[in-house]
Amino acid sequence: MRSDSVGEPPTSFADPASSSVDTITLAGEFRCGKTQLSHTLCVTAQIPNQTNAQGKVVFIDTGALVPLFSAEDQGKKFPLTSANNGYTPAENTFRPERIAQIAHRFELEPDDVLQNIMVARAYTSDHQLDLLNQVPGLMASDRFALLIVDSSTALFRVDYVGRGELAERQQRLSKFMSNLMKVAEQFNVAIWVTNQMTATPDGAAMFVTDPKKPIGGNIMAHASTTRLYLRKGRAEQRICKIVDSPELPEMEATFEINEKGVTDPKD
Fold first, then answer.
1. pTM exceeds 0.85 for this model
2. Candidates 3.40.50.300, 2.10.77.10, 3.40.190.170, 3.40.1350.10; correct CATH number of 16-263?
3. Which family does it belong to (predicted)?
């Protein structure tokens, strides 16, 4: 884990691209900055560093992204392709223009950065698993540093509804996370997944400070090397807390989201 790669030094934040074979989970509410942080990591993962750990990025998007393919390509379940090749982004998902803004901040050529990001839109949880199965074929022929899934749990929540399908949902989610870990170990890449939050649906919620908890329960917790919790601060500031890590103590870091991506707070 390095602490100087996302914001300007000395930002106290973890860069997954410098810690291979780790699975890092970032949980947070809507509009707290999970996708924006993922965009910044798409760029910083490509910056040369002392350990020569830089490489390409795979981005599996479960948000409202609409790929522009021919009818023939649509029958291929939208395979992973370069981020600057025929994508029209929608709200709160992968945005090539955001990557370009962040690339300028780090004095990188936007087209080159986008060319090194392989992105695909998943439409169902089964499709999400199918896209992950395509990843080893990509990584076998090139150097990759980071695999991002934004969000890991969203489609599982849609496909498996209610307590009656909870067990099956957890089994499928466990398989997905297990496959992620295999990719990390096989290709020595860092895994960065975002996770949604849910309100505690019982009476005990009134007795706790924060009644919200991450989706996925113990499945996500046990599959993650490091767990982070992101929440809103003042104005554009966000606060990230290390919930669990084998290397770092429980602590918090404050950063800001602006046109440059994720940076240190102004005050």
1. no
2. 3.40.50.300
3. Belongs to the RecA family.
